[in-house]
From TrEMBL:
Keywords: Amino-acid biosynthesis, ATP-binding, Cysteine biosynthesis, Kinase, Nucleotide-binding, Transferase. Transmembrane segments: none annotated. It catalyses: adenosine 5'-phosphosulfate + ATP = 3'-phosphoadenylyl sulfate + ADP + H(+). GO terms for molecular function: adenylylsulfate kinase activity; ATP binding. This is Adenylyl-sulfate kinase. Its EC number is 2.7.1.25. It comes from Pisolithus microcarpus 441. Pfam families: APS_kinase.
Length: 199
């Protein structure tokens, strides 16, 4: 743990930055089982926002583990640390006025609340999106063949099979990907951004 460190205040605060850049940052936090559709929806949303000339960026579990978090595994402590780091990075992006779209399973309610609190304390927007699909559907999709491996015992501590997933109790947006397509999912999120004056 570092000591003798002092926080250096910024040249402009977040609200002044938003005004100058004409965009208020927000973290759009997608959570759900593997294969529920987080990356698919996050990509489509990022594309939609970029095509509208917005500053948007996707932080994705599938990519962050290759770099920033390559030292972390999938045991409970590592999952907590994984989300803690992502939460801090998302906060930095949001502070920089970005529409920050995160796509992580993020199975623990407490971790998601910690990230939410981190944003709210800094007066930054945070919206939790439950990308919801039942186990039988995600197992059927199984685009990476992970459920098959988990059922065969080749992957341990796999969310939904041998590790818990705690669904959000009050997500701002609830998307059932077994019942709607990607376009409708993106629309639900952009409508939220419009109704809350981010777009
Ligand atoms: N309505 C939908 N929304 C999103 N994805 C859908 C939908 N219907 C079917 N799919 C399919 O489901 C799969 C979802 O995979 P995706 O990689 O997006 O999941 P993920 O939640 O990011 O999983 P992981 O946590 O393993 O990264 C894709 O193959 C996608 O085409
Ligand atoms: Mg993904």
């Amino acid at each position: 743990m570092a000591t003798n460190i002092t926080f250096h205040p910024g040249s402009v605060d977040a609200s002044e930055r938003s005004e100058l850049l004409k965009q208020k940052g927000i973290t759009i936090w997608l959570t759900g089982l593997s294969a529920s559709g987080k990356s698919t929806i996050a990509c489509a949303l990022e594309q939609t926002l970029l095509h509208q000339g917005r500053f948007a960026y996707r932080l994705d579990g599938d990519n962050v583990r290759f770099g920033l978090n390559k030292d972390l595994g999938f045991d409970e402590d590592s999952r907590v640390e994984n989300i803690r780091r992502i939460g801090e990075v998302a906060k930095l992006f949001s502070d920089a006025s970005c529409f920050t779209i995160t796509a992580f399973i993020s199975p623990y309610r407490l971790d998601r609340k910690t990230v939410r609190d981190l944003h709210e304390k800094a007066n930054l927007g945070f919206v939790e999106v439950f990308v919801d699909a039942p186990l039988n559907i995600v197992e059927q999709r199984d685009p990476k063949g992970l459920y098959k491996k988990a059922r065969a015992g080749e992957i341990k501590e796999f969310t939904g099979i041998s590790a818990p997933y705690e669904p959000p109790e009050n997500p701002e947006i609830h998307i059932k990907t077994g019942e709607c397509d990607v376009t409708q999912a993106v629309k639900a999120i952009t409508e939220y951004l419009v109704s809350h004056s981010y777009l």
